[in-house]
C-alpha cells in the first residue's frame, strides 16, 4: 500500500529533511505541501519543492479539499499547527505532528477531534528513537532517584523553552516520582532564573546556541552517586526514522497518541 502524504513546513530544517525522506521511501508518495509563504518559495525557486514538482498550497483548507491524502505531517509552529491538524482530522486525514510547543488545551482539543472523527493522530515531542529511549530510561530511573534535573540544549532559532522533549520527560518522571523539594531549604537565587524552571521540585534548564541541534541530559543524584542519561541529535536525519515509523503507525490507529514511547512495542 502506498501512503499519500502532505507536509506542512517544507522549507524549515525539519521539513526539508522530511520532504526528502518521503520522496525517497518507495511506499510513501508526497502529493502536496502547505507553505504559508508560498510567494517567497516561488521567488527563491526552492529546490526541495521545485525538483519534486508537487503542488504547494498556501491555504490548508484548499489543500485538504483538493488533494487526496492519507497522512498529514506538520512541522511548523504551534498556532498554525493546531489549525492545520484540526482541519486535517476533520477531513479524516491521519495526522503526525512534530511541531513543538502545543499547549495542553490544544492537545486535549485535538484528542477530542481525533476521537470524534475516528482518525489517527500521533504527536511526538521528539522523533529520534534514541531520545524516546532516553525518556523511558529516565522514567525508570525516577523509581530509584527522586532528585533529578533536566538540561536541554537546542539551536538558537527554536521558539519554545523548555523543549517538548524536556516537558515530556518531566511528565514521565512525575509518573514515578512524588513531589519533592530539592537542594538546600534556604537556597536563594542571587540572579533570577539561575536555577531554571521548576515543576514539583524538578529543575529544567534550557540552552539556546547556534551550532546545536537537539540535546538533552537527565541527571539523577543519590547518596555517593549520580546517574546521567543523555541523548544528542547531531543531524536532523536522526528524526527521520521516527517520522517514517509514525506515518506507518498512524495508519493503524483511530485516536490520538502523545509520544512515540506509547507505540514503540505495539
UniProtKB/TrEMBL annotation:
PROSITE patterns: DAPB. GO terms for molecular function: 4-hydroxy-tetrahydrodipicolinate reductase; NAD binding; NADP binding; oxidoreductase activity, acting on CH or CH2 groups, NAD or NADP as acceptor. Its EC number is 1.17.1.8. Its main location: cytoplasm. (S)-2,3,4,5-tetrahydrodipicolinate binds at residues 155, 164-165. Homotetramer. Belongs to the DapB family. This is 4-hydroxy-tetrahydrodipicolinate reductase. It comes from Ornithinibacillus caprae. The gene is dapB.
